[in-house]
Design a protein that fits this description.
This protein is of the alpha+beta class. 39% of the residues lie in helices and 28% in strands. It has a three-stranded mixed β-sheet with strand order 1-2-3. The mean pLDDT is 93.
């Protein structure tokens, strides 16, 4: 799931080399912590949080196919 998120986010930001994604799996839950470069968190969150919400929906769909639940935290 980490690679899936990385693929999407690298196309949203200006400096994809600054992206850091930490993935932790606990039983039926996958926790993802997305860190982006300074000043780029707005590009990942989007207007009114719509981009972040879309990311969460996509990750939830991928996780559900694996019988898991996904949590996404976005930080800068």
């Amino acid at each position: 799931m980490k690679e899936f998120l990385e693929f999407i986010v690298t196309h949203l930001v200006d400096h994809p080399e600054r992206i850091l994604i930490m993935e932790d799996q606990h039983n039926a839950t996958v926790s993802l912590r997305l860190t982006v470069g300074e000043g780029e968190v707005g590009k990942v969150i989007g207007r009114s949080g719509r981009t972040a919400q879309a990311l969460r929906v996509l990750l939830s769909a991928v996780a559900a196919r694996q019988g898991k639940r996904a949590l996404l935290e976005i930080v800068d």
